[in-house]
Amino acid sequence: MSGRTHEQGLKDLTLLGNQGTKYLFEYSSEVLEAVDNLHPNRDFFVKFNCPEFTSLCPLTGQPDFATMYISYIPDQKIVESKSLKLYLFSFRNHGDFHEDCVNIIMNDLIKLLDPRYIEVWGKFTPRGGISIDPWCNYGKPGTKYEEMAQFRLMNHDLYPEKVDNR
């Protein structure tokens, strides 16, 4: 069979294919796993859309719901998607502000992957008549990706979307 070999990061995975996977109900970055990027000679985006993200208001404990968008340009590692799903699920009982959640997610993925570029955008449903959509990004310092991050930040909301589904 052709494709990724066991030595190309598969041997380190503990969650994918494991029928006994436990879902964590408290925030845990330790669940994240990565595999080798087999295409480090090329820039490409990896984008995840998680329409079922939940966390809790740190004061009231009320649930907050969001679609979480994670886009990154990998360097040597890519995140394994099942571990990312379990990691995002671990926010279910985590009490934090929306802005904190997106920055925590980005920081944890930077620590795991050391990506060339990454951005995280949380599009939260309204509560109390207002929605909050925090967006953060990072480009590897001293590279063109740092410049890309600055440019994307400066131009992030030039063309705001029409929101009619909330």
Automatic annotation (TrEMBL):
The active site is at 57 (thioimide intermediate), 64 (proton donor). Substrate binds at residues 79-81, 98-99. It comes from the Bacteria. Its EC number is 1.7.1.13. GO terms for biological process: tRNA queuosine(34) biosynthetic process. Pathway: tRNA modification; tRNA-queuosine biosynthesis. Keywords: Cytoplasm, NADP, Oxidoreductase, Queuosine biosynthesis. It is found in: Cytoplasm. The keyword Protease does not apply. One of its GO terms (molecular function) is preQ1 synthase activity. It is an enzyme of class 1 (oxidoreductase). It catalyses: 7-aminomethyl-7-carbaguanine + 2 NADP(+) = 7-cyano-7-carbaguanine + 2 NADPH + 3 H(+). Catalyzes the NADPH-dependent reduction of 7-cyano-7-deazaguanine (preQ0) to 7-aminomethyl-7-deazaguanine (preQ1). Belongs to the GTP cyclohydrolase I family. QueF type 1 subfamily. This is NADPH-dependent 7-cyano-7-deazaguanine reductase. The gene is queF.
